[in-house]
Amino acid sequence: FPFRLFPLREHGMNWRAKPLTCQEIQAFKRSEEVMQRFTRAYQLMLRFYGISLINEKTGELKRAENWAERFQNLNRFSHNNLRITRILKCLGEMGYEHYQVHLVKFFLTETLVKETLPNVKRSALDYFLFTIRSKEERRELVHYAWQHFRPRGSFVWGPRDKLLRYR
After folding, report:
1. Sequence-distant (≥ 6) Cβ neighbours of residue 106 within 8 angstroms
2. Per UniProt, which keywords does this protein have (predicted)?
3. How far is it, in rounded angstroms, from Cα 157 to Cα 155?
4. Helix H segments across the chain?
5. Burial class (CB in 10 A: 0-12, 13-18, 19+), 100
């Protein structure tokens, strides 16, 4: 059977790859070896995108040394955005919600604050943000995005009245 590096409970682009079952996810989570491999795979993909995992416990990220070259690739090839969405969803399935939050915030910062990834901005706002399982964490990230989005009046990812009242 074909397998995915970041499997999900839903069908993806590869029609031959079977979706994960809840039982398989639980078995993965119980295996220390599987979870270590998963973390290594995540770090490998981050390096490919020009990102470094600087704290395995918290999920904190920073730009890798090769970030400029890798960000050019991210800006040029939008199919990477589908893979990033898949990785984010899989992080949630595997119990790494804290990794999700750091990765989404990283992309929001790079797209909205530093403006290094203009061609990833739409995916970060339309898809990456909404992979976050925790409603509170998602609200915080939507608020963060709203604070940095320009022009602010064109922000459509949250109700303006709630964004103004947040916190």
Report:
1. 51, 61
2. Receptor
3. 6
4. 22-30, 32-49, 67-76, 79-93, 97-108, 121-123, 135-148, 160-165
5. buried
Question: CA-CA distance, 83 to 78, in Å (whole number)?
Answer: 9
d(CA 64, CA 69): 10
Whole-angstrom distance, CA of residue 115 vs CA of residue 52 = 19
Distances (CA, A) of 81 to 31, 59, 161: 29, 20, 30
Q: Quick one: pLDDT band at residue 1, thresholds 50, 70, 90? A: very low
Q: Please report how many Cα atoms fall inside a 13 Å half-sphere around the Cα of residue 47, on the Cβ side.
A: 6
Q: How far is CA 68 from CA 104, 106, 112, 116, in A?
A: 19, 15, 17, 9
Q: What pLDDT sits at residue 65?
A: 97
One-letter amino acid of 9: R
What span, in angstroms and rounded, lies between the C-alpha atoms of 162 and 141? 13
pTM of this structure: 0.92
Q: What's residue 167's pLDDT? A: 66
Residue of 68, 61, 66 lying closest to 43 (CA atoms) = 61
Q: In angstroms, rounded to a whole number, what is the distance separating the alpha carbons of residues 35 and 137?
A: 23
